[in-house]
Amino acid sequence: MFSYWEQKNFLNYDLIVVGSGFVGLSTAIHFKKKHPKAIVAVLERGVLPTGASSKNAGFACFGSLTEILDDFWHMNQEEVLTLVKKRYQGLEQIRKKFGDKALGYQASKGYELLDANQLGALDQLDGVNRMLKKLFKEDVFSEVKKKEKFGFSESVKSVIQNKLEGELDPSKYLICLWKLAGSLGIRIFTGANVEAIDVETGTIKLSGQFNRQEMEFTGSQVAVCTNAFTKQLLPETNLEPGRGLVLVSQKLDFDIPWKGGFHMDKGYVYFRKIDGRLLLGGARNIDFEGENSTEFKANPKIKSHLSHLVQEVIFPGKEIQWEHEWTGIMAFGDKKLPIIQSIGKKGSIAVRLGGMGVAIGWQVGKELSKLISEK
Fold this sequence. Notes:
Blueprint: H1 4-9, E1 12-18, H2 22-34, E2 40-44, E3 59-60, H3 65-71, H4 77-98, H5 100-103, E4 110-114, H6 125-136, E5 141-143, E6 158-162, E7 166-167, H7 170-183, E8 187-190, E9 194-198, E10 203-210, E11 213-224, E12 240-249, E13 261-264, E14 269-274, E15 277-282, H8 288-291, H9 300-314, E16 322-332, E17 339-343, E18 347-351, H10 357-373
Parallel strand pairs: 1-2, 1-11, 2-8, 4-13, 11-18
Antiparallel strand pairs: 3-7, 4-6, 5-6, 9-10, 10-11, 12-15, 12-16, 13-14, 14-15, 17-18
Protein backbone atom coordinates (compact mmCIF):
# COMPACT_ATOMS: atom_id res chain seq x y z
CA MET A 1 0.00 0.00 0.00
CA PHE A 2 1.11 3.59 -0.59
CA SER A 3 1.51 6.13 2.14
CA TYR A 4 -0.41 9.37 2.20
CA TRP A 5 2.82 11.18 1.31
CA GLU A 6 3.54 8.93 -1.66
CA GLN A 7 0.06 9.36 -3.09
CA LYS A 8 0.20 13.11 -2.56
CA ASN A 9 3.66 13.78 -4.00
CA PHE A 10 4.74 11.01 -6.36
CA LEU A 11 1.82 9.88 -8.54
CA ASN A 12 0.28 13.00 -10.11
CA TYR A 13 1.95 15.35 -12.60
CA ASP A 14 1.34 18.16 -15.03
CA LEU A 15 3.31 16.25 -17.66
CA ILE A 16 4.46 12.64 -17.71
CA VAL A 17 6.96 11.63 -20.39
CA VAL A 18 7.27 7.93 -21.16
CA GLY A 19 10.80 7.16 -22.36
CA SER A 20 14.06 8.73 -21.18
CA GLY A 21 16.02 8.83 -24.42
CA PHE A 22 17.03 11.94 -26.34
CA VAL A 23 13.46 12.82 -27.35
CA GLY A 24 11.86 12.12 -23.99
CA LEU A 25 14.37 14.16 -22.00
CA SER A 26 14.27 16.98 -24.54
CA THR A 27 10.47 17.08 -24.32
CA ALA A 28 10.55 17.26 -20.53
CA ILE A 29 13.28 19.92 -20.52
CA HIS A 30 11.60 22.22 -23.04
CA PHE A 31 8.21 21.89 -21.35
CA LYS A 32 9.67 22.61 -17.92
CA LYS A 33 11.50 25.67 -19.21
CA LYS A 34 8.28 27.06 -20.66
CA HIS A 35 6.27 26.13 -17.56
CA PRO A 36 8.68 26.48 -14.60
CA LYS A 37 6.00 25.70 -12.01
CA ALA A 38 4.87 22.52 -13.75
CA ILE A 39 5.62 19.18 -12.09
CA VAL A 40 7.21 16.94 -14.71
CA ALA A 41 8.15 13.25 -14.52
CA VAL A 42 9.96 10.95 -16.93
CA LEU A 43 9.30 7.19 -16.76
CA GLU A 44 11.90 4.72 -17.99
CA ARG A 45 11.56 0.96 -17.77
CA GLY A 46 15.29 0.30 -17.66
CA VAL A 47 18.08 1.62 -15.50
CA LEU A 48 19.44 3.14 -18.72
CA PRO A 49 17.38 4.17 -21.79
CA THR A 50 15.97 1.06 -23.40
CA GLY A 51 16.03 2.06 -27.07
CA ALA A 52 18.93 3.42 -29.09
CA SER A 53 19.93 6.67 -27.37
CA SER A 54 22.85 5.18 -25.42
CA LYS A 55 23.36 2.36 -27.92
CA ASN A 56 23.87 4.23 -31.19
CA ALA A 57 27.22 4.56 -32.93
CA GLY A 58 27.80 8.28 -32.25
CA PHE A 59 27.69 9.69 -35.77
CA ALA A 60 26.87 13.41 -35.92
CA CYS A 61 25.63 13.17 -39.49
CA PHE A 62 22.76 14.29 -41.68
CA GLY A 63 23.03 12.06 -44.75
CA SER A 64 25.62 10.69 -47.17
CA LEU A 65 25.43 11.37 -50.91
CA THR A 66 23.91 8.00 -51.86
CA GLU A 67 21.55 8.11 -48.87
CA ILE A 68 20.18 11.47 -49.98
CA LEU A 69 19.85 10.19 -53.55
CA ASP A 70 18.01 7.13 -52.27
CA ASP A 71 15.64 9.38 -50.31
CA PHE A 72 14.37 10.83 -53.61
CA TRP A 73 12.72 7.46 -54.31
CA HIS A 74 10.52 7.97 -51.25
CA MET A 75 10.22 11.76 -50.80
CA ASN A 76 10.04 14.86 -52.93
CA GLN A 77 12.79 17.49 -52.97
CA GLU A 78 11.13 19.72 -50.39
CA GLU A 79 10.74 16.81 -47.98
CA VAL A 80 14.38 15.78 -48.46
CA LEU A 81 15.55 19.36 -47.81
CA THR A 82 13.34 19.58 -44.73
CA LEU A 83 14.82 16.36 -43.37
CA VAL A 84 18.43 17.42 -43.98
CA LYS A 85 17.70 20.82 -42.42
CA LYS A 86 16.19 19.21 -39.30
CA ARG A 87 19.22 16.96 -38.89
CA TYR A 88 21.87 19.63 -39.39
CA GLN A 89 20.14 22.28 -37.30
CA GLY A 90 19.53 19.71 -34.57
CA LEU A 91 23.24 18.95 -34.38
CA GLU A 92 24.12 22.64 -34.33
CA GLN A 93 21.60 23.29 -31.56
CA ILE A 94 23.01 20.68 -29.17
CA ARG A 95 26.57 21.80 -29.88
CA LYS A 96 25.60 25.38 -29.04
CA LYS A 97 23.60 24.32 -25.98
CA PHE A 98 26.04 21.90 -24.36
CA GLY A 99 29.38 22.58 -26.02
CA ASP A 100 31.62 20.30 -28.06
CA LYS A 101 33.74 19.24 -25.09
CA ALA A 102 30.76 18.09 -23.02
CA LEU A 103 29.40 16.13 -25.99
CA GLY A 104 32.74 14.62 -26.95
CA TYR A 105 32.17 16.19 -30.36
CA GLN A 106 34.84 16.05 -33.06
CA ALA A 107 34.50 18.02 -36.29
CA SER A 108 36.25 15.22 -38.16
CA LYS A 109 34.12 15.32 -41.33
CA GLY A 110 32.07 12.53 -42.88
CA TYR A 111 33.04 10.22 -45.73
CA GLU A 112 31.34 7.71 -48.00
CA LEU A 113 32.93 4.80 -49.82
CA LEU A 114 31.66 4.06 -53.34
CA ASP A 115 32.21 0.80 -55.18
CA ALA A 116 31.98 0.27 -58.95
CA ASN A 117 28.19 -0.15 -58.84
CA GLN A 118 27.73 3.21 -57.12
CA LEU A 119 29.94 5.43 -59.27
CA GLY A 120 26.85 6.80 -60.98
CA ALA A 121 26.30 8.86 -57.82
CA LEU A 122 29.23 11.03 -58.87
CA ASP A 123 27.15 12.28 -61.80
CA GLN A 124 24.60 13.55 -59.29
CA LEU A 125 27.09 15.17 -56.88
CA ASP A 126 26.94 18.67 -58.38
CA GLY A 127 23.16 18.56 -58.55
CA VAL A 128 22.86 17.57 -54.89
CA ASN A 129 25.30 20.32 -53.92
CA ARG A 130 23.20 22.87 -55.81
CA MET A 131 20.09 21.68 -53.99
CA LEU A 132 21.78 21.82 -50.59
CA LYS A 133 23.10 25.35 -51.21
CA LYS A 134 19.61 26.54 -50.30
CA LEU A 135 20.49 25.44 -46.77
CA PHE A 136 24.27 25.72 -46.48
CA LYS A 137 25.26 28.45 -48.98
CA GLU A 138 28.27 26.32 -49.95
CA ASP A 139 29.11 22.95 -51.44
CA VAL A 140 28.74 20.07 -48.98
CA PHE A 141 30.07 17.08 -50.94
CA SER A 142 33.36 16.70 -52.76
CA GLU A 143 35.36 13.78 -54.14
CA VAL A 144 38.60 13.01 -52.31
CA LYS A 145 41.45 13.28 -54.81
CA LYS A 146 43.82 10.77 -53.22
CA LYS A 147 41.62 7.99 -51.88
CA GLU A 148 44.68 5.72 -51.54
CA LYS A 149 45.69 7.51 -48.32
CA PHE A 150 42.87 5.75 -46.48
CA GLY A 151 44.29 2.29 -47.16
CA PHE A 152 40.99 0.77 -48.30
CA SER A 153 40.87 -2.09 -50.80
CA GLU A 154 40.82 -1.53 -54.55
CA SER A 155 37.09 -2.27 -54.55
CA VAL A 156 36.62 1.29 -53.22
CA LYS A 157 36.55 3.33 -56.42
CA SER A 158 35.80 6.72 -54.91
CA VAL A 159 35.57 8.42 -51.50
CA ILE A 160 33.16 11.33 -51.03
CA GLN A 161 33.75 13.88 -48.28
CA ASN A 162 31.05 15.73 -46.34
CA LYS A 163 32.88 18.59 -44.63
CA LEU A 164 30.02 19.46 -42.24
CA GLU A 165 29.70 16.17 -40.34
CA GLY A 166 31.45 14.84 -37.25
CA GLU A 167 31.36 12.41 -34.31
CA LEU A 168 30.25 12.53 -30.68
CA ASP A 169 29.84 10.35 -27.60
CA PRO A 170 26.12 9.56 -27.22
CA SER A 171 26.41 8.73 -23.53
CA LYS A 172 28.06 12.11 -22.85
CA TYR A 173 25.10 13.70 -24.63
CA LEU A 174 22.75 11.80 -22.31
CA ILE A 175 24.71 12.96 -19.28
CA CYS A 176 24.26 16.55 -20.47
CA LEU A 177 20.51 15.96 -20.66
CA TRP A 178 20.42 14.33 -17.21
CA LYS A 179 22.25 17.26 -15.66
CA LEU A 180 19.96 19.81 -17.27
CA ALA A 181 16.81 17.87 -16.38
CA GLY A 182 17.99 17.55 -12.78
CA SER A 183 18.76 21.25 -12.50
CA LEU A 184 15.20 22.01 -13.61
CA GLY A 185 13.65 19.69 -11.03
CA ILE A 186 12.42 17.07 -13.49
CA ARG A 187 11.88 13.71 -11.78
CA ILE A 188 13.22 10.65 -13.58
CA PHE A 189 11.90 7.25 -12.49
CA THR A 190 13.81 4.18 -13.70
CA GLY A 191 12.44 0.66 -13.42
CA ALA A 192 9.03 2.06 -14.37
CA ASN A 193 7.76 -0.49 -16.90
CA VAL A 194 4.65 1.05 -18.44
CA GLU A 195 2.00 -1.52 -19.23
CA ALA A 196 -0.82 0.67 -20.52
CA ILE A 197 -1.60 4.31 -21.27
CA ASP A 198 -5.05 5.89 -21.39
CA VAL A 199 -4.57 8.93 -23.63
CA GLU A 200 -8.07 10.20 -22.77
CA THR A 201 -7.61 10.33 -19.00
CA GLY A 202 -3.81 10.60 -18.74
CA THR A 203 -3.61 7.44 -16.62
CA ILE A 204 -0.48 5.32 -16.88
CA LYS A 205 -0.43 1.81 -15.46
CA LEU A 206 2.84 0.15 -14.53
CA SER A 207 3.36 -3.59 -14.71
CA GLY A 208 3.99 -5.56 -11.53
CA GLN A 209 3.07 -4.72 -7.98
CA PHE A 210 4.60 -2.17 -5.67
CA ASN A 211 4.08 -2.84 -1.98
CA ARG A 212 1.39 -5.35 -3.03
CA GLN A 213 -0.51 -2.62 -4.86
CA GLU A 214 -0.84 -1.75 -8.55
CA MET A 215 0.84 1.53 -9.37
CA GLU A 216 -0.74 4.19 -11.57
CA PHE A 217 0.56 7.60 -12.49
CA THR A 218 -1.74 10.37 -13.68
CA GLY A 219 -0.74 13.30 -15.85
CA SER A 220 -2.61 16.33 -17.10
CA GLN A 221 -0.68 15.52 -20.29
CA VAL A 222 1.21 12.40 -21.32
CA ALA A 223 4.02 12.37 -23.91
CA VAL A 224 4.97 9.01 -25.42
CA CYS A 225 8.59 9.03 -26.58
CA THR A 226 9.31 5.31 -26.78
CA ASN A 227 10.18 5.25 -30.52
CA ALA A 228 10.38 1.63 -31.75
CA PHE A 229 8.58 0.26 -28.69
CA THR A 230 5.57 2.55 -29.12
CA LYS A 231 3.43 -0.09 -30.81
CA GLN A 232 3.52 -2.14 -27.61
CA LEU A 233 1.56 0.71 -25.98
CA LEU A 234 -0.20 2.27 -28.98
CA PRO A 235 -0.62 -0.49 -31.59
CA GLU A 236 -1.99 1.78 -34.33
CA THR A 237 1.17 3.86 -34.57
CA ASN A 238 2.60 3.93 -38.12
CA LEU A 239 6.12 2.62 -37.57
CA GLU A 240 8.22 -0.51 -37.66
CA PRO A 241 11.21 -1.36 -35.48
CA GLY A 242 14.64 -1.59 -37.06
CA ARG A 243 17.40 -3.25 -35.09
CA GLY A 244 20.98 -2.10 -35.58
CA LEU A 245 24.10 -4.10 -34.70
CA VAL A 246 27.23 -2.29 -33.49
CA LEU A 247 30.63 -4.00 -33.09
CA VAL A 248 33.76 -2.63 -31.43
CA SER A 249 37.10 -4.35 -31.87
CA GLN A 250 39.87 -5.03 -29.43
CA LYS A 251 42.57 -2.36 -29.36
CA LEU A 252 44.35 -2.57 -32.68
CA ASP A 253 48.08 -3.23 -32.90
CA PHE A 254 48.44 -0.96 -35.93
CA ASP A 255 47.73 2.69 -36.60
CA ILE A 256 44.49 3.57 -38.34
CA PRO A 257 45.41 5.86 -41.26
CA TRP A 258 42.18 7.87 -41.23
CA LYS A 259 39.75 9.68 -38.95
CA GLY A 260 36.14 10.74 -39.36
CA GLY A 261 32.76 9.09 -39.71
CA PHE A 262 32.53 6.71 -42.68
CA HIS A 263 29.48 5.32 -44.46
CA MET A 264 28.90 2.71 -47.13
CA ASP A 265 25.95 1.30 -49.04
CA LYS A 266 23.48 4.24 -48.93
CA GLY A 267 24.35 4.95 -45.32
CA TYR A 268 23.37 1.50 -44.06
CA VAL A 269 26.92 0.60 -43.04
CA TYR A 270 29.01 2.93 -40.88
CA PHE A 271 32.38 2.84 -39.15
CA ARG A 272 34.81 5.06 -37.28
CA LYS A 273 37.72 4.71 -34.87
CA ILE A 274 37.27 5.12 -31.13
CA ASP A 275 40.04 4.80 -28.54
CA GLY A 276 42.34 2.93 -30.91
CA ARG A 277 39.58 0.51 -31.88
CA LEU A 278 37.32 0.05 -34.88
CA LEU A 279 33.61 0.67 -34.40
CA LEU A 280 31.54 -0.87 -37.18
CA GLY A 281 27.80 -1.27 -37.46
CA GLY A 282 24.58 -1.24 -39.42
CA ALA A 283 23.92 -3.36 -42.53
CA ARG A 284 20.31 -4.02 -41.61
CA ASN A 285 19.59 -3.86 -45.37
CA ILE A 286 21.20 -7.31 -45.59
CA ASP A 287 18.23 -8.71 -43.68
CA PHE A 288 15.41 -6.17 -43.35
CA GLU A 289 12.93 -8.83 -42.24
CA GLY A 290 15.24 -10.25 -39.60
CA GLU A 291 16.02 -6.79 -38.21
CA ASN A 292 12.35 -5.82 -37.95
CA SER A 293 12.55 -6.77 -34.29
CA THR A 294 12.60 -5.34 -30.77
CA GLU A 295 14.67 -8.26 -29.50
CA PHE A 296 18.15 -7.29 -28.34
CA LYS A 297 20.07 -9.97 -30.19
CA ALA A 298 22.89 -9.99 -32.74
CA ASN A 299 21.94 -11.19 -36.22
CA PRO A 300 24.65 -13.71 -37.27
CA LYS A 301 24.05 -13.01 -40.96
CA ILE A 302 24.75 -9.32 -40.48
CA LYS A 303 27.69 -9.88 -38.13
CA SER A 304 29.27 -12.13 -40.73
CA HIS A 305 28.71 -9.50 -43.44
CA LEU A 306 30.31 -6.77 -41.32
CA SER A 307 33.28 -8.96 -40.45
CA HIS A 308 33.76 -9.68 -44.13
CA LEU A 309 33.80 -5.94 -44.91
CA VAL A 310 36.65 -5.43 -42.45
CA GLN A 311 38.90 -8.02 -44.07
CA GLU A 312 37.93 -7.29 -47.66
CA VAL A 313 37.45 -3.50 -47.71
CA ILE A 314 38.35 -1.52 -44.56
CA PHE A 315 41.56 -3.27 -43.44
CA PRO A 316 42.44 -5.56 -46.38
CA GLY A 317 44.13 -8.76 -45.28
CA LYS A 318 44.06 -7.94 -41.58
CA GLU A 319 42.20 -9.91 -38.95
CA ILE A 320 40.68 -8.20 -35.95
CA GLN A 321 38.81 -9.55 -32.97
CA TRP A 322 35.55 -8.11 -31.67
CA GLU A 323 35.50 -7.22 -27.99
CA HIS A 324 32.07 -5.56 -27.72
CA GLU A 325 28.79 -6.05 -29.52
CA TRP A 326 25.30 -4.73 -28.91
CA THR A 327 22.12 -3.81 -30.68
CA GLY A 328 20.00 -0.68 -30.57
CA ILE A 329 16.38 -0.59 -31.66
CA MET A 330 15.35 2.24 -33.99
CA ALA A 331 12.02 3.05 -35.66
CA PHE A 332 11.23 3.59 -39.34
CA GLY A 333 8.23 4.15 -41.57
CA ASP A 334 7.21 4.86 -45.14
CA LYS A 335 8.94 8.23 -44.82
CA LYS A 336 11.89 9.35 -42.71
CA LEU A 337 10.14 12.37 -41.22
CA PRO A 338 9.24 11.82 -37.54
CA ILE A 339 5.68 11.50 -36.24
CA ILE A 340 4.83 14.36 -33.88
CA GLN A 341 1.12 14.49 -33.08
CA SER A 342 -1.63 14.54 -30.48
CA ILE A 343 -3.46 11.34 -29.55
CA GLY A 344 -6.62 11.65 -27.50
CA LYS A 345 -7.42 14.46 -25.07
CA LYS A 346 -4.28 14.08 -23.00
CA GLY A 347 -1.79 12.17 -25.12
CA SER A 348 0.91 13.12 -27.63
CA ILE A 349 3.69 11.21 -29.33
CA ALA A 350 7.06 11.95 -30.91
CA VAL A 351 8.45 8.80 -32.51
CA ARG A 352 9.93 7.32 -35.70
CA LEU A 353 13.32 9.03 -35.74
CA GLY A 354 14.57 7.04 -38.73
CA GLY A 355 17.89 6.20 -37.12
CA MET A 356 18.77 9.89 -36.66
CA GLY A 357 17.98 10.41 -32.97
CA VAL A 358 21.32 12.09 -32.27
CA ALA A 359 20.68 14.69 -34.95
CA ILE A 360 16.98 15.41 -34.50
CA GLY A 361 16.06 14.19 -31.00
CA TRP A 362 16.56 17.58 -29.31
CA GLN A 363 14.49 19.45 -31.91
CA VAL A 364 11.77 16.79 -32.03
CA GLY A 365 11.39 17.06 -28.25
CA LYS A 366 11.14 20.83 -28.55
CA GLU A 367 8.40 20.51 -31.17
CA LEU A 368 6.48 18.00 -29.07
CA SER A 369 6.72 20.29 -26.03
CA LYS A 370 5.27 23.14 -28.09
CA LEU A 371 2.43 20.90 -29.27
CA ILE A 372 1.62 19.88 -25.69
CA SER A 373 1.70 23.47 -24.47
CA GLU A 374 -0.82 24.47 -27.12
CA LYS A 375 -3.32 21.69 -26.33
